[in-house]
């Protein structure tokens, strides 16, 4: 990592640690979008501008698309859309690294509202992309985000968390879950 990059990264982390926050701009398919995690307070909002489609004039990509079409009957557009949505999910997922992490993912492109695009995103994203949350103006998005962020910024006490589980009762009582719990308990001893 170059000296300037290291300094910029250090400044970003310091701003977040001091409660000032920071804005980090990165390019989809770049180093930051695929290998660096911004969990917890280091990444509370990701804005995806556009859809990260591959450069389609590459000879290698053209050969791959031809192979997929000839061998598996996969249309070029289907593959390109699938790949772009996979990369979009990777990018926005940099800020959501665990079950208890939270953040806002903004897909700032009208094409994300289309069913053929949304259906290729992972389920954990699709579940929150209801029709009434797509194609919003900037003002509408701010009105949705502001109270949610205000609520999430409140400290959680241990007492508030008692009795709250990330799993449903059915999941906890399933044989697979019981087996996993017993396995982890056995490994801990």
From TrEMBL:
GO BP terms in the entry: nucleotide-excision repair; positive regulation of mitotic recombination; transcription by RNA polymerase II
GO-annotated molecular function: ATP binding; damaged DNA binding; DNA helicase activity; hydrolase activity, acting on acid anhydrides, in phosphorus-containing anhydrides
Family annotation (Gene3D superfamilies): P-loop containing nucleotide triphosphate hydrolases (3.40.50.300)
Domain of life: Eukaryota
Pfam family, one: Helicase_C_2
InterPro entries recorded: ATP-dep_Helicase_C, DinG/Rad3-like, P-loop_NTPase, RAD3/XPD
Cellular component terms per the entry's GO annotation: nucleus
SMART domains per record: HELICc2
Residue ranges occupied by any ATP-dependent helicase C-terminal domain in the UniProt entry: 4-114
Entries under PANTHER family matching the protein: DNA REPAIR DEAD HELICASE RAD3/XP-D SUBFAMILY MEMBER, GENERAL TRANSCRIPTION AND DNA REPAIR FACTOR IIH HELICASE SUBUNIT XPD
Name of this protein: ATP-dependent helicase C-terminal domain-containing protein
Organism per entry: Hyalella azteca
